[in-house]
Design goal:
- It is a single chain.
- With 115 residues, the protein is an alpha+beta fold.
- The protein has a domain of 79 residues.
- The protein is built from three helices and six strands.
- A hairpin with a 2-residue loop joins β3 and β4.
- It is globular, with a radius of gyration of 14 Å.
């Protein structure tokens, strides 16, 4: 699912970000970004998933620095693992990095069924 296109202003990125993910647990307790949408396994369609870990990173693209957090999900039905890449505004990237670090492993955090 790609919801941010290159060249969009930070205000649009923030709107999309806060519409699709809850970052309050990340900022307050270093918990993973929580999706506000139903996460379905791309292999079997199950909604029984957990969050494995996240990785903060940035890169230079088309002369502009882009900031992201990649969140790994795992299906507890078929054990498939996939990544959701989330674009972040620069100030939010550095705030999460300062409070929580660039990488955090959750094991099998947040087993949940969203049916």
């Amino acid at each position: 699912m790609k919801f941010v296109r290159k060249g969009l202003p930070d205000s649009f990125i923030k709107l999309q970000l806060y519409t699709m993910f809850d970052l309050e647990p990340t900022l307050s307790s270093c918990l993973p970004p929580t999706p506000r949408f139903t996460v379905r396994c791309p292999v079997c369609g199950s909604t029984t998933v957990c969050i494995k870990h996240y990785l903060l990173h940035s890169r230079e693209k088309l002369g502009k620095r882009q900031y992201r957090v990649d969140v790994w999900f795992k299906c507890m039905n078929c054990f498939a693992v996939w990544v959701h890449g989330i674009h972040l505004p620069e100030e939010l990237y550095y705030e999460i990095k300062k409070r929580c670090g660039e990488y955090r492993d959750y094991g099998d955090y947040g087993h949940y069924r969203q049916d």
